[in-house]
Design brief:
Layout lengths: L4 E5 L13 H7 L1 E4 L8 H9 L6 E6 L1 H15 L4 E7 L8 H13 L10 H6 L9 H23 L17 E6 L7 H10 L3 E6 L6 H4 L1 H14 L19
Parallel strand pairs: 1-2, 1-3, 3-4, 4-5, 5-6
Helix pairs in contact: 2-3
């Protein structure tokens, strides 16, 4: 079996350093390719741009906003007859953004026409972490450094994206899939992850305990172990036979 080729897609205002704690382990499992979400005004446009970067028989790994893009990328690949070895969705969803969420984003965009960009607010950064890590200065500094590195234009571009409901695409994504949710994620509900797993034909759902939204940074060893076990247990070829498994009780 060929070495896995991972395409890593980060989340909102995250760069390649999102994967820094996972990178050594990922490089032991396969070859790593980094994607970014620094261009495109929609999930669809972002996914289409990444289609040309998709490795042959690649494993697409998407976190949060990147999970929306990863999911649509896997769907696009299926539509165009491009083989995808697997899909890993971390702390994400297929639900549409609400009117309230879109209104709040538009308000932030409007405010930034009058005020300088200083990165994300401390409140927003803390909300992304497990309650017991919300005063972790090193973790907060890491999140803010990514936000500042990407800058105002990327912040405005990503903030303006309206996330449409994508559940109708799930039945067409036939590759083996793994969905990972966090018990203490304040930005994504567990039922959103469960709905993803029910909609994908060949999916597993795993729940990480003692973790907030930022699972690649908060729980890198646990994520790596889940990924390693999942890769070992799946049959990645055109004739794979994997039953749908929604493992609600399988927690790390």
């Amino acid at each position: 079996m060929s070495t896995p080729q991972f395409l890593l897609i980060p989340g909102f205002m995250c760069d390649a350093s999102l994967w820094k704690f996972m990178l050594p382990g990922l490089q032991q499992l396969g070859q790593v390719h980094f994607a970014d979400l620094n261009q495109g005004d929609s999930i669809e446009n972002m996914a289409m741009r990444l289609l040309t970067d998709l490795p042959v028989n690649g494993v697409i790994v998407g976190f949060s906003l990147g999970g929306y893009v990863a999911r649509h990328l896997a769907w696009l690949a299926h539509q165009q007859g491009i083989s995808v070895r697997g899909l890993v969705l971390l702390n994400t969803s297929a639900r549409a953004s609400t009117l309230d969420e879109d209104n709040k984003n538009r308000q932030q965009i409007k405010l930034l026409t009058h005020y300088p960009y200083k990165g994300q607010t401390l409140t927003a950064l803390r909300r992304a972490l497990h309650p017991q890590r919300q005063d972790d200065d090193i973790m907060l500094a890491h999140l803010q450094a990514m936000s500042l590195s990407l800058g105002k234009q990327v912040f405005l571009q990503q903030l303006a994206i309206v996330r449409a409901d994508g559940h109708h695409e799930l039945p067409d994504i036939c590759c083996p899939s793994m969905i990972v949710a966090s018990r203490k994620d304040q930005m994504r509900r567990l039922d959103e992850a469960e709905k993803l797993a029910r909609g994908l034909p060949h999916a597993e759902l795993h729940i990480i305990e003692d973790c907030g939204h930022m699972s690649p940074l908060e729980k890198a060893p646990e994520l790596l172990q889940l990924l390693r076990t999942w890769l070992e247990n799946q049959t990645f070829n055109d004739g794979f036979d994997v039953s749908n498994q929604i493992l609600r009780a399988n927690s790390v």
